[in-house]
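#struct-pred

JT: dropping the chains for the assembly here, can someone run the whole complex?
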Amino acid sequence: QSALTQPASVSGSPGQSITIPCTGTSSDVGAYNYVSWYQQHPGKVPKLMIYDVSDRPSGVSNRFSGSKSGNTASLTISGLQAEDEADYFCLSYTSTSTWVFGGGTELTVL
Amino acid sequence: QVQLVQSGAEVKTPGASVKVSCKASGYTFTTYPLHWVRQAPGQRLEWMGWIKPDNGDRKYSQKLQGRVTITRDTSATTAYMELSNLRSEDTAVYYCARQGPRAFDTWGPGTTVIVPS
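RK: done, full complex below.
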């Protein structure tokens, strides 16, 4: 199972919006609504930000949103803040009852 | 509160095995699957496998199939991940994560495993 495809890095200025795509196949992202997104600051444990494509756990800012079209899921962060600077990983369930992460995207807030 | 506590860091020689534990508390252990995820230095998260604590069903990544074994002890509310035939590429932080109602909602603190080359 190959990793889902994410850009290695994205950047944006405070207050702007950015979108991180996560591209899979019809056997994972395209087949199920079990896509989730995780934020990881350096040296820290991953934190769940979005689950089931577009749902947000309690306590996560509504600046974070998720969507999916075909085999590509996306994470959008609006109103960028310095604290959003981190790595972001997508995760999807697959047709072989396994799970696969994306390669990760480093977000820089300029 | 829901909590996962992992065993301590390990240094192993190539070819050896390592067994990492993950003790769950704050919820009914048999209700939710537990996953193991690893992250090599500076690298992406890699899903290793999962176990359903109620019946012991498990599934492993194709890459690690044959070298990884995930087990659980329901009386101890603990899951275990054993990786055999260690090589330097297995140097990583190993996490356990609960698959709750909302994806991987709780993560352990991570266990560093070092395999010198």
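JT: nice. Chain B touches chain A at residues 35, 37, 44-47, 50, 59-63, 95, 97, 102-105, 107-110 (CB under 8 Å). The two ends of chain B are 40 Å apart (CA to CA).
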